[in-house]
Give the backbone structure.
Amino acid sequence: MADTTGLQLLSKLDADGRLTVSLAEQVLPAPTRHEVLLRVDAAPINPSDLGLLFGPADIDNAEFADGTIVARMPDPAVRAMAARHGEAMPVGNEGAGTVIAAGDAPEAQALLGKLVACVPGGMYAQYRIVDARACMELPEGITAEQGAAAYVNPLTALGFVETMRREGHTALVHTAAASNLGQMLVKICKEDNVGLVNVVRNPAQVAILRGIGAEHVVDTSSDSFLADLAVALEATGATMAFDAIGGGKLVSQILTAMEQVANEGAAYSRYGSNSAKKAFIYGALDLSPTVLTRNFGFTWDVAGWLLTPFMVKIGEHGVERLRQRVRDGLTTTFASHYKARVSLEQVLTREAAVDYNARRTGEKYLIVPNG
Ligand SMILES: NC(=O)c1ccc[n+]([C@@H]2O[C@H](COP(=O)([O-])OP(=O)(O)OC[C@H]3O[C@@H](n4cnc5c(N)ncnc54)[C@H](OP(=O)(O)O)[C@@H]3O)[C@@H](O)[C@H]2O)c1
């Protein structure tokens, strides 16, 4: 088989703080052994992709010319990202595509002509070589668009409930809860009968979550936010939180409210309650410092949470069990919705870039690299 040539989206940060995002031609050799060659049909733009594509660079004031974006990265970020200086990095964690060539291993040959989803990185490209063993064949009747986001958000949302059970908690708090992932979590918790306190930041998001059946939704923009939070924590017994925001005081407020609920009716202790309270920060929607006002005793924990180490922790069989659940619910529990479908060239226009970089509720973009 001859080499295959296609476009690939690259993000390069130079040591002087100049971020360049552009398309380049990529030559892919014929796949060998367990490899398969995918024609990439659809790939979502998720917040974690934007972290690599743009990071905190100033996209609103970037230059858009000749199919290239040039933006300034703030100095602290330039220093923090020294390891990527000068390297043109392929972007796009996950997506779906059609297997158009395969290596000689049986696992690879079995996928020839099939539509698969995978999370290899570098999916903002027309073609991509991936390991057949890391691909999920999409069920009959599922389109590339329906399968494009079958990994990152579904497995993360399922991972929250799994983590909760493993660590001995019984209900959850979730922030930025009207997100694509948050809406999946609402459905999972209903199916599994797990209490969930959804924290959002405006009344429209309350309405979205109520519309899909969420029972406890509290709004940080409401004057009664802290009181509403305490009521919802009391009702659910939630002592574990997953926070996508990271910056600001919300994690602290949640731990404080958990402690307040734990202390109701108890005798005063200057050490606080013995109720284990844990908050995982799993996103960085707000890059400002995380502010903890430690008025929640001493039995608490704030930690980071990332999908990949979680998958390593639960092992191959654990991951396969979750993947099966995702496969079965791609058009229901794990359905993603898109505001726009764009080509690789359109990704590099000002109109699109400023819009998808805003990460607004219900406004996710899907890249269709082959039209
Ligand atoms: N750790 C992991 O392994 C992992 C895996 C998957 C996803 N994630 C994270 O999960 C989060 C959700 O992903 P997604 O694809 O579901 O997102 P999404 O659908 O693009 O939605 C983003 C949501 O965040 C809200 N938001 C943005 N900035 C905010 C801020 N400063 N304060 C409060 N809310 C804010 C938006 O609300 P508005 O409309 O009000 O702006 C919107 O509801 C992201 O942070 C992503 O990085 C992490």
User: Anything to note?
Assistant: Residues 4-149+336-367 form a domain with the Quinone Oxidoreductase; Chain A, domain 1 fold (CATH 3.90.180.10).
